[in-house]
Write a structure and sequence with these properties.
This protein is of the alpha+beta class. It has 15 helices and 12 strands. The chain folds into 3 domains: 186 residues, Reverse transcriptase/Diguanylate cyclase domain (Alpha-Beta Plaits); 82 residues, Orthogonal Bundle (DNA polymerase, domain 1); 142 residues, DNA polymerase, Y-family, little finger domain (Dna Ligase, domain 1).
């Protein structure tokens, strides 16, 4: 078990919508939804608390949001604005610990164990003979101070939920299910009482599929999961079931992300390397035109390739996915014989499944991703000229990346991306790796 750690998880409430309300006072207190793009079928990517009360949730379409609330204000998403605010938030967080993990653009984990020790020692010195556990009291003070600083130094309309416990898993469980705009603390013995009124899908790592699997073994509530036998869960549900049980019991589990969340005592990394990177786009022009689809896909592959090269990885797998107007979808994942890094190579692999396909309907969404990363090596092998050629190609790609990073995205483009204009513009997702340092 992990008994001596104090972990703080902060989650900004209705983040994109709150940033828009902070930037525009006329939107405050109103029902606001941020759209991927402003059109009747534009996807809602964030809603204000007022919009959520009207039933407008992430994922619904703009026209559906207007049906639920005719007064809703639809706003085009502004990634640069959100990244700027995130950078300011994380600069505040970094003042409290070096063990800071950026989990997403609006979430972070802070290991504040050492800070608590320092503050506790100071309190004990001032009151000699005091023999009380100040850990969580001091942790809550830190959480409240962070909440206050974000509001006073960045914007009063930015609210956050803070969970404080012994592990990442439990800290996030508290912030996800606690009251908004406040800090909640729980120690290990308080967990059964806290989870008894929650649903299975309220637990980090349980989606509807996992819920169905758990229910097959008579586990219907988080308390059922907590009270289950570990060996039985391992037998029935293999590692995923055991990791969930271990998370609730603060036991260090295996190597997966969820396992690390369940109580690993090691220090955090400032940037977790993602398992995959990719981009998607809901087409404003829904069509069966292959030439148009190829240009959009190339643009998505270029954005994906840039992120891959920034990580200094090669990818050994490529996935492409598309969906049709009115329902239905297609897709394919391919494992590669040799890892790739160049945008054009990603495109060739992603386009192949679509190239000869007789599309049964208009395509409404395209997505591409790369995964199965291997570290990129810059060491040349003089006995394999092809490697010298590949390194030259990599250097050229990086040179193009540097130009576009400095002068704006797509300052230099490939001919195949010509005339794509505003198609597939900058997007930002909640689970995207976030860079906040100078």
């Amino acid at each position: 078990m992990v008994k001596d750690k104090i972990i703080l998880h902060i989650d900004m409430n209705s983040y994109f919508a709150s940033v828009e309300q902070q930037a525009n006072p006329h939107l405050r207190g109103k029902s606001v939804s941020v759209c991927a793009y402003l059109s009747p079928k534009g996807c809602i990517i964030a809603s204000s608390m007022e919009a959520k009360l009207k039933g407008i949730q992430t994922g619904c379409l703009a026209y559906q949001a207007q049906e639920l609330d005719p007064q809703v204000v639809l706003v085009q998403n502004d990634p640069a604005k959100y990244r700027t605010v995130t950078k300011k938030i994380f600069q505040i967080l970094s003042e409290y610990t070096t063990d800071l993990e950026t989990y997403s653009i609006d979430e972070a984990f802070l290991d504040i164990t050492e800070l608590i020790k320092v503050k506790k020692e100071g309190k004990m010195n001032k009151a000699k003979g005091m023999n009380v556990n100040l850990d969580f009291k001091l942790a809550k003070e830190i959480g409240q101070e962070i909440n206050f600083r974000i509001k006073s130094e960045i914007g009063s309309w930015l609210k956050s939920s803070i969970g404080i416990s012994r592990t990442r898993f439990l800290a996030k469980l508290l912030s996800d299910n606690g009251p908004k705009d406040s800090a909640m603390i729980k120690d290990l013995h308080e967990i059964p009482e806290f989870i008894k009124n929650l649903e299975l899908t309220d637990i980090w790592g349980i989606n509807w599929r996992m819920q169905l699997r758990l229910q097959k073994f008579n586990i219907y509530t988080p308390l059922d999961l907590y009270q289950s036998q570990a060996h039985q869960l391992l037998q029935d549900l293999k590692k995923p079931g055991y990791y969930l049980w271990a998370g609730l019991h603060v036991i260090k589990a295996g190597p997966s992300r969820l396992a690390r969340s369940s109580g690993e005592a090691g220090s955090f990394k400032t940037q977790d390397n993602p398992k995959s990177v990719g981009h998607s786009y809901c087409l404003s022009k829904q069509t069966t035109d292959k030439e148009y689809l190829a240009r959009i896909l190339m643009k998505l592959c270029e954005k994906t390739g840039r992120r891959l090269r920034e990580l200094e990885f090669d990818a050994s797998a490529v996935s492409v996915y598309w969906s049709y107007v009115g329902g239905g979808h297609g897709g394919k994942s391919k494992r590669l014989y040799a890892p790739i890094y160049e945008s054009w190579d990603i495109f060739k692999q992603a386009w192949q499944p679509l190239q000869d396909l007789d599309l049964p309907g208009k395509v409404r969404m395209l997505a591409v991703s790369v995964s199965s990363f291997v570290p990129r090596t810059r060491q040349l092998n003089l006995f394999r000229p092809v490697e010298i050629k590949e390194n030259k190609k990599y250097s050229l790609s990086r040179a193009l990346d540097e130009v576009n990073n400095k002068y704006g995205e797509f300052t230099l483009i490939r001919g195949s991306m010509w005339n794509t204009g505003d198609n597939a513009p900058d997007r930002i997702g909640f689970r995207k790796t976030v860079s906040w340092k100078e």
